[in-house]
Amino acid sequence: MGVVLRNLQKVVPLRRARLRKDVDTLRHILGIQKFDLGIICVDNYRIQKINHIYRKKNVPTDVLSFPFYEDLRPGKMPCPLHRDELNLGDIFLGVEFLMKQCQEESLDLHGALTAVTAHGICHLLGYRHETEEEWTEMLQRESYILSEYNRLTGRHLEPLMKRCNQDR
């Protein structure tokens, strides 16, 4: 199956083919091509609703991750026993929220989507940012992923660091 990419929002025009290519590049960098991954693009209403249900935060956000392997330690790869366990989980991208952030900070939306997807994949791979130490570890991993992405694509993406500080 690979990557299932769904665009459930109509607020922001989105080039799914470009995002899919970027996600495939991120999967290659991390060596997780054999794992299935869901990417769901949603509007502010839907991401706020999900954020409220699962995190008790009644505000929209840029990304929410739902790992298949909930107890995975950062830096460790899952060890699936069966084909149906070749799943990392799902990432919800708050596209409308990100678009507003990009407009405020003069950022490219597709670059931000890629950076936030890298952040989401880190969560699926066990990284957290509830403490300063975890935040530092996750930021280092994101920085590595995006530096490799930049090397392969000629782009210049960086982690959206404010996001981590706001979400803790």
UniProtKB/TrEMBL annotation:
The cofactors required by this protein are: Zn(2+)
Q: Which HAMAP family match?
A: Endoribonucl_YbeY
- Which Gene Ontology BP terms does the record give? rRNA processing
Output the Pfam families linked to this UniProt entry.
YbeY (PF02130)
Superkingdom, according to UniProt?
A: Eukaryota
Organism (species): Seriola lalandi dorsalis
Q: Which UniProt keywords apply?
A: Endonuclease, Hydrolase, Metal-binding, Nuclease, Zinc
A single GO molecular-function term is:
endonuclease activity
Q: Does the keyword Cell membrane apply?
A: no
Q: Which InterPro entries match?
A: MetalPrtase_cat_dom_sf_prd, YbeY, YbeY_CS
Quote the PANTHER family the UniProt record gives.
Answer: ENDORIBONUCLEASE YBEY, CHLOROPLASTIC (PTHR46986:SF1)
Q: What family does this chain come from, according to its entry? A: Belongs to the endoribonuclease YbeY family.
Protein name as it appears in the record: YbeY metalloendoribonuclease
Instruction: Tell me the leader sequence span.
Output: none
